[in-house]
Amino acid sequence: MSLLEVADLVVDFGTEDGTVHAVDGVTFSVDSGEIVGVVGESGSGKSVTAMSILGLIRQPPGHIRSGRLSFHGEDLRAMAPRRLRAIRGGPIAMVFQDPMTTLNPVMSVGAQIVEALRLHNADLSKDQARARAAELLESVGVPNPAQRLRQYPHEFSGGMRQRAMIAMAIANDPELLIADEPTTALDVTIQAQVLDLLRTAQEKTQAATILITHDLGVIAELADRVVVMYAGRVMEQAPVRPLFATPRHPYTVGLLASLPRLDDEDGPLRPIPGSPPNMLAPPSGCPFHPRCPLAADKCRTERPEPTDIGDGRQTACHFHEKLIEIDPAALFPASVAP
Amino acid sequence: MTELLRVENLTKHFPIRRGVFRRQVGAVRAVDGIDLSLEQGDTLSLVGESGCGKSTTGRLIVRLLDPTAGRIVFQGRDLATLHPREMRPLRRDVQIMFQDPYASLSPRMTVHDIVAEPLRVQGRYRAGGPTRVAELLELVGLAPDHANRYAHEFSGGQRQRIGLARALALDPKLLVLDEPVSALDVSIQAQVVNQLRDLQRRLGLTYLFISHNLSVVQHIADNVLVMYLGKSVEYGSKHDTFSRPLHPYTRALLASTPHIDPAQRQAKIMLAGEPPSPLAPPPGCAFHNRCPYAVERCRIEVPLLLPYRDSLVACHRVDEI
Fold first, then answer.
1. Residue B301, number of CB atoms within 10 A of its CB
2. pLDDT in tens, B112-159
3. B268-306: per-residue pLDDT in tens?
4. Is A218 within 8 Å of A183 (Cβ atoms)?
5. According to a count of CB atoms within 10 Å of the terminal CB, is the N or C end of chain A lower?
6. Within the 138-197 window of chain A, which residues sit less than 8 Å (CB to CB) from chain B?
7. Interatomic CA distance for residues A99 and A109, integer angstroms
8. What is the pTM of this model?
9. Helix, strand or coil for residue B89?
10. Chain B hits for A240, Cβ within 8 Å
11. What are the chain B neighbours of A192 within 8 Å (beta carbons)?
């Protein structure tokens, strides 16, 4: 049994303009100790999936229509709110993109870490919790931890705030860490520091990690296994190296082709034509068909389900076998057409 | 090649005022003596991390901000000292496109009105305005029937195309592009980068391309100027700068950029610490507190931007490292 199992998750949001089909049948699992990268562009449903696992979807406007979410075999959706609160911040911890909005601006950083510690360890005294908080800040590379504990979030830089968030997340030795775009707001030199910190924290705690990002560079640096999402669906799942070396879904091929690379010749880029679908009215059949160079009639009418293709890989494409012999450069040529 | 723009000693200090009388108690040295030159038809990229002054430099060049000191010589005339009235006819030659496709377009105006606005301001709308707007929309890859819709009906990529059409309305010679693709998803980012390259070739445009993303810069720039805390640290051709970076900061930036290859995860040249505050820049080289090569001299003496090989670099130890 996996540590976390997500099966057939469907999440909608009611809006003035109609129903947004944010997540439409997502299935994946996370084993103890592994880092699973969930990658997709804006609106692909990756954050909504994470919020659903944490029980943080506000209902309404959100609505978890169906699906199973189980942690250690226990059904997260059927769990009493009290039990769920004990799990959040304890065995399941999270790091968000913007620490300025997730940290409390009127509480010192130390008080927030102490609160997180004592909420889950009733027998910890205030002094013990303070000492432990200082140790945690030091372990994530915040200099002068004793002094920093007394400061407020606005006195921390972006990188330091993200370190404090990570300290808080690992405070109660989580079994599962969910990190949603943890380095997106940071400059590259600081991003490299925080990625390195996440890597060492993960090695030390052995927490399974779900790393949600739009950045394939971050995935390439950190993930063991990758789930590629598009329009609320999982397009492809694979261990990280084969995914980058031999993608088996046209969307993954296109995503890799369109990336500007530092070590490239400075030629034109190879974009995916068109734009992501409007999730108020997702396309019929395969959601990628309007942008896919391999699309045929079948793709417009019949939705491809994720299929095992061996070596721990899955793809949701009717024509994935064609990709074995096609050169990605031929599939997504350099062009300026929108 | 003809020089279109030359910037000398460009400086912008934002005053910090305190107390009842708003007395000036200090200054944020956002841009601190930048020199650059841009040839007709070329792309110069300003790169660096947040707070390095690259966007302020762009805004000074289009005179959205007034410089504290320095010269902005555009086709032989110094824009920095021009009276607003004399500046107006020159504004059509120098246009800017912004990063945020959501904040930079008015939600109350149709696409037609957004793109037509520069023409109206410059009194050029009456003579064939609608035709020109249609032409511009086609140029950036939008359909003619998009003209009557509002910005919120469009995706981020399409909004950037609208911003580009507006910037091109007056046939500018120089376009300042301030992080034009940073808010876009990669599949769309690639479309817009290719579009910019294509338009440059077709219209003979000159770009000042401001970006924190070196991988994007790799695909568009001819020359690169690396900024740190308001100053230039390295200035050279893109090829030289990316293939053999000279300044320790340029090296760190390149090493920190992910390589997008899980088979080559590498221990990076990790840059410790964070940039100092531009409120109180450290003495000597602004980079010395993060630099693995810093010696006593770097803590005392500000390094000048001096020729080295075919580039310019501001580092005391460039010979040794």
1. 12
2. 999 999 999 888 888 888 899 999 998 888 888 888 999 888 888 888
3. 657 888 888 888 888 999 999 999 999 999 999 999 999
4. yes
5. N
6. 157, 159-160, 187-193, 196
7. 11
8. 0.90
9. helix
10. 262
11. 255-256, 268, 270-271
